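Could you help me review a protein record that somebody else here produced? This is what I was given.
***
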Amino acid sequence: MLEAGWVRVDLHSHTMWSGDSTTTPDEVEQAVLDSGIDVLCITDHNAIKGAQELADRLPCRVIVGEELRTHAGEIIGLFLTERVPFGVPPAEAARLIRAQGGVVYVPHPFDPMRRNLAEPALDALVAEGLVDAIEVINAKTSLSSLNRRAAEYAAERGLLAGAGSDAHVPMALGSAYVEMPDFDGPVAFLESLGSARCVGHHWDEPRPWSPRVLPSTSSH
Protein backbone atom coordinates (compact mmCIF):
# COMPACT_ATOMS: atom_id res chain seq x y z
CA MET A 1 0.00 0.00 0.00
CA LEU A 2 1.23 3.46 -0.87
CA GLU A 3 1.30 6.17 1.73
CA ALA A 4 -1.45 8.76 1.40
CA GLY A 5 -0.43 11.38 -1.12
CA TRP A 6 2.11 9.15 -2.89
CA VAL A 7 1.97 8.03 -6.54
CA ARG A 8 3.50 5.37 -8.76
CA VAL A 9 5.41 6.88 -11.70
CA ASP A 10 6.84 4.95 -14.66
CA LEU A 11 9.58 7.27 -15.89
CA HIS A 12 10.28 5.61 -19.26
CA SER A 13 7.80 4.14 -21.77
CA HIS A 14 7.15 3.91 -25.49
CA THR A 15 4.18 3.88 -27.86
CA MET A 16 3.69 3.36 -31.58
CA TRP A 17 5.06 6.87 -32.15
CA SER A 18 8.51 5.50 -31.28
CA GLY A 19 8.83 3.49 -34.48
CA ASP A 20 10.22 0.43 -32.67
CA SER A 21 7.04 -0.09 -30.62
CA THR A 22 3.60 -1.13 -31.84
CA THR A 23 1.68 -0.19 -28.69
CA THR A 24 -1.51 1.58 -29.74
CA PRO A 25 -3.40 4.18 -27.69
CA ASP A 26 -6.04 1.59 -26.77
CA GLU A 27 -3.34 -0.74 -25.51
CA VAL A 28 -1.62 1.97 -23.50
CA GLU A 29 -4.94 2.83 -21.88
CA GLN A 30 -5.60 -0.79 -20.88
CA ALA A 31 -2.00 -1.29 -19.72
CA VAL A 32 -2.28 1.72 -17.40
CA LEU A 33 -5.42 0.24 -15.85
CA ASP A 34 -3.77 -3.17 -15.48
CA SER A 35 -0.54 -1.84 -13.98
CA GLY A 36 -1.96 0.65 -11.48
CA ILE A 37 0.45 3.36 -12.61
CA ASP A 38 -0.66 6.83 -11.51
CA VAL A 39 1.71 8.89 -13.68
CA LEU A 40 3.18 7.75 -16.99
CA CYS A 41 6.16 9.40 -18.64
CA ILE A 42 5.75 8.75 -22.36
CA THR A 43 9.23 9.03 -23.81
CA ASP A 44 9.01 8.04 -27.46
CA HIS A 45 12.14 8.04 -29.57
CA ASN A 46 12.70 11.50 -31.03
CA ALA A 47 8.99 12.36 -30.79
CA ILE A 48 6.54 13.99 -28.37
CA LYS A 49 3.35 14.00 -30.45
CA GLY A 50 2.09 10.70 -29.11
CA ALA A 51 2.53 11.80 -25.51
CA GLN A 52 0.72 15.05 -26.24
CA GLU A 53 -2.18 13.24 -27.88
CA LEU A 54 -2.48 10.69 -25.07
CA ALA A 55 -2.29 13.23 -22.25
CA ASP A 56 -6.05 13.83 -22.24
CA ARG A 57 -7.02 10.26 -22.98
CA LEU A 58 -5.31 8.01 -20.46
CA PRO A 59 -6.70 7.16 -17.01
CA CYS A 60 -3.52 8.53 -15.43
CA ARG A 61 -1.49 11.71 -15.58
CA VAL A 62 0.94 11.93 -18.48
CA ILE A 63 4.34 13.60 -18.48
CA VAL A 64 5.39 14.49 -22.00
CA GLY A 65 8.90 13.26 -22.63
CA GLU A 66 11.28 12.26 -25.38
CA GLU A 67 14.10 9.76 -25.57
CA LEU A 68 16.44 11.40 -28.02
CA ARG A 69 19.61 10.10 -29.53
CA THR A 70 22.65 12.31 -29.26
CA HIS A 71 25.89 11.55 -31.05
CA ALA A 72 27.10 9.91 -27.81
CA GLY A 73 23.97 7.98 -26.82
CA GLU A 74 20.46 8.53 -25.51
CA ILE A 75 19.07 11.14 -23.12
CA ILE A 76 15.50 11.59 -21.91
CA GLY A 77 13.83 14.95 -21.49
CA LEU A 78 10.74 15.13 -19.28
CA PHE A 79 8.10 17.88 -19.00
CA LEU A 80 8.71 18.95 -22.58
CA THR A 81 6.66 21.36 -24.63
CA GLU A 82 8.80 21.09 -27.76
CA ARG A 83 10.64 18.22 -29.39
CA VAL A 84 14.41 18.28 -29.02
CA PRO A 85 16.19 17.43 -32.31
CA PHE A 86 18.16 14.20 -32.34
CA GLY A 87 21.83 14.02 -33.23
CA VAL A 88 22.91 17.07 -31.25
CA PRO A 89 25.76 16.84 -28.71
CA PRO A 90 24.69 15.68 -25.22
CA ALA A 91 25.34 19.05 -23.54
CA GLU A 92 23.29 20.86 -26.16
CA ALA A 93 20.45 18.37 -25.75
CA ALA A 94 20.49 18.85 -21.98
CA ARG A 95 20.45 22.63 -22.31
CA LEU A 96 17.57 22.50 -24.79
CA ILE A 97 15.62 20.36 -22.31
CA ARG A 98 16.39 22.72 -19.45
CA ALA A 99 15.54 25.79 -21.57
CA GLN A 100 11.90 24.68 -21.76
CA GLY A 101 11.73 23.94 -18.05
CA GLY A 102 12.32 20.24 -18.53
CA VAL A 103 14.11 17.57 -16.54
CA VAL A 104 17.25 15.80 -17.83
CA TYR A 105 16.99 12.07 -17.12
CA VAL A 106 19.71 9.63 -18.24
CA PRO A 107 18.25 6.20 -19.10
CA HIS A 108 20.06 2.83 -18.87
CA PRO A 109 23.43 4.58 -18.40
CA PHE A 110 25.64 1.47 -18.49
CA ASP A 111 23.67 -0.91 -20.74
CA PRO A 112 25.34 -1.14 -24.17
CA MET A 113 22.29 -2.99 -25.55
CA ARG A 114 20.15 0.10 -24.90
CA ARG A 115 22.20 2.75 -26.76
CA ASN A 116 23.49 4.04 -23.45
CA LEU A 117 25.16 7.41 -23.14
CA ALA A 118 28.92 6.90 -23.40
CA GLU A 119 30.51 7.14 -19.96
CA PRO A 120 32.85 10.06 -20.83
CA ALA A 121 29.83 12.01 -22.11
CA LEU A 122 27.86 11.14 -18.97
CA ASP A 123 30.75 12.22 -16.74
CA ALA A 124 31.01 15.50 -18.64
CA LEU A 125 27.29 16.20 -18.28
CA VAL A 126 27.42 15.49 -14.57
CA ALA A 127 30.48 17.71 -14.15
CA GLU A 128 28.59 20.56 -15.84
CA GLY A 129 25.56 20.06 -13.61
CA LEU A 130 23.38 19.10 -16.56
CA VAL A 131 21.95 15.83 -15.20
CA ASP A 132 18.90 15.84 -12.94
CA ALA A 133 18.41 12.10 -12.45
CA ILE A 134 19.83 8.70 -13.42
CA GLU A 135 17.81 5.60 -14.24
CA VAL A 136 18.89 2.98 -11.69
CA ILE A 137 16.28 0.38 -12.64
CA ASN A 138 15.57 -0.20 -16.32
CA ALA A 139 13.27 -3.19 -16.74
CA LYS A 140 14.77 -4.10 -20.13
CA THR A 141 18.30 -4.29 -18.74
CA SER A 142 18.90 -8.00 -18.35
CA LEU A 143 22.00 -7.82 -16.13
CA SER A 144 21.15 -6.62 -12.64
CA SER A 145 24.80 -5.65 -12.20
CA LEU A 146 24.31 -2.84 -14.75
CA ASN A 147 21.39 -1.41 -12.79
CA ARG A 148 23.43 -1.70 -9.58
CA ARG A 149 26.30 0.15 -11.22
CA ALA A 150 23.88 2.94 -12.18
CA ALA A 151 22.60 3.13 -8.59
CA GLU A 152 26.15 3.31 -7.26
CA TYR A 153 27.06 5.99 -9.79
CA ALA A 154 24.07 8.10 -8.76
CA ALA A 155 24.75 7.67 -5.04
CA GLU A 156 28.44 8.53 -5.38
CA ARG A 157 27.63 11.77 -7.21
CA GLY A 158 24.57 12.80 -5.26
CA LEU A 159 22.23 12.39 -8.23
CA LEU A 160 18.54 11.57 -8.01
CA ALA A 161 17.56 8.00 -8.90
CA GLY A 162 14.67 6.93 -11.12
CA ALA A 163 13.15 3.77 -12.57
CA GLY A 164 11.22 2.99 -15.74
CA SER A 165 9.85 0.04 -17.62
CA ASP A 166 11.26 1.14 -21.00
CA ALA A 167 8.13 -0.64 -22.18
CA HIS A 168 7.88 -1.26 -25.92
CA VAL A 169 4.97 -3.68 -25.51
CA PRO A 170 1.87 -3.05 -23.40
CA MET A 171 2.45 -5.99 -21.03
CA ALA A 172 5.74 -4.45 -19.87
CA LEU A 173 4.33 -1.11 -18.77
CA GLY A 174 4.77 -0.62 -15.03
CA SER A 175 7.41 -3.34 -14.65
CA ALA A 176 9.66 -0.65 -13.15
CA TYR A 177 8.57 2.59 -11.53
CA VAL A 178 9.15 4.90 -8.59
CA GLU A 179 6.90 5.41 -5.58
CA MET A 180 7.12 9.06 -4.57
CA PRO A 181 5.18 11.91 -2.97
CA ASP A 182 2.75 13.47 -5.42
CA PHE A 183 3.92 16.56 -7.26
CA ASP A 184 2.82 19.32 -9.58
CA GLY A 185 5.34 20.34 -12.21
CA PRO A 186 9.04 19.68 -12.78
CA VAL A 187 10.40 21.51 -9.72
CA ALA A 188 8.15 19.63 -7.32
CA PHE A 189 8.85 16.43 -9.27
CA LEU A 190 12.57 16.70 -8.54
CA GLU A 191 11.90 17.52 -4.90
CA SER A 192 9.67 14.45 -4.57
CA LEU A 193 12.10 12.22 -6.44
CA GLY A 194 14.54 12.78 -3.61
CA SER A 195 12.21 10.73 -1.38
CA ALA A 196 11.33 8.12 -4.01
CA ARG A 197 11.57 4.37 -3.78
CA CYS A 198 12.65 2.59 -6.98
CA VAL A 199 10.74 -0.62 -7.67
CA GLY A 200 11.02 -3.05 -10.55
CA HIS A 201 12.03 -6.30 -12.17
CA HIS A 202 13.43 -7.41 -15.50
CA TRP A 203 10.95 -7.66 -18.37
CA ASP A 204 12.01 -8.08 -21.99
CA GLU A 205 9.69 -10.71 -23.41
CA PRO A 206 8.87 -10.45 -27.11
CA ARG A 207 5.39 -9.48 -28.11
CA PRO A 208 3.32 -12.46 -29.29
CA TRP A 209 2.96 -12.23 -33.05
CA SER A 210 -0.37 -11.27 -34.53
CA PRO A 211 -1.38 -9.49 -37.74
CA ARG A 212 -1.58 -5.80 -36.93
CA VAL A 213 -2.60 -2.63 -38.73
CA LEU A 214 -1.40 0.45 -36.87
CA PRO A 215 -2.81 3.95 -37.25
CA SER A 216 -0.53 6.23 -39.22
CA THR A 217 1.85 8.50 -37.35
CA SER A 218 3.40 9.93 -40.50
CA SER A 219 1.91 13.38 -39.85
CA HIS A 220 3.17 13.39 -36.27
Observations:
- The mean pLDDT is 94.
- The helical segments are 25-35, 49-54, 90-99, 119-127, 144-157, 186-193.
